[in-house]
Amino acid sequence: MRDEASFMGSLRRRRLAGMTLISAKADSFVTSWREGGGLAGYIGLCVNQTSFVETVKYVSGTEQLLPHRIGLFDGAELLETEVMGSMQLTIALVDKRSMPLRRNSVATLRSIAADRHALPTLDLLGTVVTAVADNPGIGPAAAAIARDTIRDLLSCLLDDPANPAPRAVEEGLRVSVVRWVDDHLHVGSISPTAAASQHNISVRSLHRLFAGTGETFGAMVRRRRLEKAARDVVSTEDMIQTIAMRWGYAEAGQFIGAFKRTFGDTPMAYRRAIMRVADD
């Protein structure tokens, strides 16, 4: 896809149907692209995770300094990108054939990235993209939902930047809430009020967001906390009390009780059973 590049860094790719996610880290570099090359069939979403300056040159001869931490581009238009400073970003390349694009709709991509009305949806897109790219352990079903959410939000941005589809926004927002919960499990109790405030929605809207998933917000928090702690039970030799404190349980007994109700055994007994199976 590249004619010439001074890229020196690391790249990690994850492929989903009709989409490729790329996580990249590098120092300053310049990359040139062939007009009509392999990138031409994709729409790109860049999520910048560090502060750096990026200038993009297009086939039309225009240049653009990325105005927001999230940028959109049509691969057919790219001519050259120049990054100044150490960067870390995630890129989602979406196959144009997998999206119901209207004629000339991709021409609005650059203006969308600078449209303040589109910023909330762009931020939501960025959250979903980085959540999938940073968690390779996400199962196929969850990855497919995230992929469809990315495509739906992107399609809606191209149609109407200020009014994305409610279903796509809801799914993206739910992903964002779950990720925020994961990042705060260690603090202990997580209230619906705190989660709602962080995402600029009411507590009632937060509960409604999870009503169609088959579990309440509180049940989701308890499940995620137990899943994280259970993983450490089988993958580390840490003391049970240490694991319980790490994942926000008030005391080891609380963790042991929750673990036994779910897995039918205490954490230590479960760990020993797993070790016996591994030794056989």
Automatic annotation (TrEMBL):
Superkingdom field: Bacteria
Xref: InterPro entries: AraC_XylS_family_regulators, Homeodomain-like_sf, HTH_AraC, HTH_AraC-typ_CS, Tscrpt_reg_AraC-type_HTH
Span of domain HTH araC/xylS-type: 175-273
Keywords, comma-separated and alphabetical: DNA-binding, Transcription, Transcription regulation
Keyword Cell inner membrane: no
Pfam families recorded: HTH_18
SMART domains tied to this protein: HTH_ARAC
Molecular functions (GO terms): DNA-binding transcription factor activity; sequence-specific DNA binding
Record's keyword annotation contains Transcription: yes
Protein name: HTH araC/xylS-type domain-containing protein
